[in-house]
Design a protein that fits this description.
This protein has 164 residues and is α+β, with helices and mostly antiparallel strands. The chain is built from 5 helices and 7 strands; from the N terminus they run E-H-H-H-E-E-E-H-E-H-E-E.
């Protein structure tokens, strides 16, 4: 399977894709990115477990063979689209992240062209930071905030299109 030539595109996240994402498991230390079981997320009405939030904010990134590469949340804020994303764990670290993040960024621009685009990333996640920088994100701030495992340091990275 040659992932390097696949065309990627964004679609609204389906309920089946949301359930699939909840089954993904990441190795430590990336396991912090795992989700609750989908039925629990639905019961709590949180994130993509809420059909309205899923429809309004969540996209799945697909390829020409209808394989889901991952997902993104395009969270609307005043003048900003904040991206949260997750790539399927068995494809992480294989050099596919740049195309994946570029597809998400392009969709965020298409939806809200006048918005600034940013994301938050844990400061220890050097692999993700390198990928984001290759797409055009720059670290603009570092701060501590709560995670499900306690306080952690995050970078805020803002998208600045790379010169062609």
């Amino acid at each position: 399977m040659n992932h390097q030539t696949e065309q990627l595109y964004a679609i609204p996240m389906t309920i089946d894709q949301a359930a699939e994402v909840c089954e993904w498991t990441y190795p430590a230390p990336y396991n912090i990115y795992g989700w609750l079981p989908f039925e629990q997320m639905q019961g709590l009405g949180i994130e993509f477990g809420d059909p309205d939030i899923r429809r309004q904010q969540y996209i799945s990134i697909m390829d020409e063979q209808d394989r889901m590469w991952g997902f993104a949340q395009l969270f609307p804020m005043e003048g900003v689209t904040r991206i949260g994303l997750g790539m399927r764990p068995d494809w992480c670290g294989l050099g596919m992240g740049k195309r994946f993040v570029k597809c998400i960024t392009d969709e965020a621009i298409r939806r809200q062209p006048s918005n600034e685009i940013d994301l938050e990333v844990l400061t220890w996640n050097k692999r993700a930071i390198r990928t984001y920088q290759q797409v055009g994100f720059q670290i603009t701030d570092t701060y501590e905030r709560m995670t499900k495992e306690g306080n952690a340091l995050f970078h805020c990275m803002v998208y600045k299109p790379l010169e062609k």
